[in-house]
Amino acid sequence: MPNILPITAASNHSPAAPVLRPQGGHFAGIDALRACAAVAVVLLHACVPYANPAMAGLSWSVQDSPSESVTAVFWAIEIVIMPIFLVIAGFFAARSMAYRGAWFTATQRIRRLGWPLLLTVVFLLPIEFYTWMLGWLAEGQVSVSHVRRMKFEGGIDRNLWGLSHLWFLQYLMMYVLVLACVWTSLTRRSAAQIGRIALPMCFVVAVVSLTMRPEVVWGFQHSFLPVVSKWFYSGAFFASGALWYRLDPELDDVRDYGSRLMGPGILLTIAAVCTGTWWLGVVGDPMQWMNGGWAGVDPVVQSDRFAGGLPVTSLIVRSSLAVMSVAAAALMTFALMGVSLANINRLGRVMKSLAGASFMIYLLHHPVVGLAHIAAKFALPGVSPVIKVALVTGLGVSAGWSVSWLASCRRRRLAERTKAEEPTRSIEFPRPSEVASTQKRAA
Fold this sequence. Notes:
This protein is mainly α. The protein is built from 15 helices and 2 strands. The longest helix has about 40 residues, at about 100-140.
């Protein structure tokens, strides 16, 4: 990611000796952005059955009537949503390491992410699997015997097995470990080295990863283990957030200048969405070009399979799409961070609750959204996809938000009960007889 924001003198503070300031509300805008991004993730998944072109490599509970407006929203969110989370995660991981130490932070982060990942893999993924099977049974794609034996025909399950939306937790733990390993070396780097070398290298890594494997963004790489191209692409944004901490530890530059990036970011996002959806529509069967199978693609000599005289599968066309996609993601990420920081100094009650529930919304929404899509397809066949998306998004957000609210109420009751059960400690005043004896001894 290039050095797209100016560096002021205040940006050169070393994290080894950070400038202390009252933090009340200083990052309230980031909390608000994180809350809105969690809702955007649910909205993204709510759009899946109605997107055309659909996301290659992504298996879903049902497919429904496509919508052009929903498709545009889907791909616009897809380009920018994970970079937002990754840059924020990288920035605050670096900030925590500067204050608390690298390995202490890494241990705490892995504990906080590892347990939810383990529990959701054990309990949530089986629920999600049978939710998907319910949709496939309703559509006639599989039979009950296939589900019972977990053996499917025609390769319909080729994209079914993996961590689903939980891949982010797995990758994040790995990134935190890598950051802890290189933290000492990172603190020795000057602002010039970071701004002129490290950040541009992050941009190059993201572009190369996306050029070689467009399915990192324009498809879905489903697996139980990290996928190399996806790991490097996502890691480039996480590293950008960590590196940005070295330049702007209080995000003052982002707050002051980030809004200037909004216009170029929106234009690039529109260009990337238009180009990407066109490319997906003409490139052919995803099973041929995914995982780097370019040699197996035989472009037909037609105008819609060429761009400027070049085959759509050529390195130049793919790299151009990659540059647009990465640049749009970078600009929109820092623009949204800047606008949020500049305009939000204090969270309202609802936004504070939503921000606190964002992690739970992320964890729990997937099977709820998949089940809601099944119900929407068969119970509301004539309803507009836009209305269906709104209903499904509301259900997905409400599921995680309500669980988080119930958990916070329970914690509050336990705290009040514990406080009430604590014995009241009071200062015992001396008795008159004790005072008299003390005075007599003193005399």
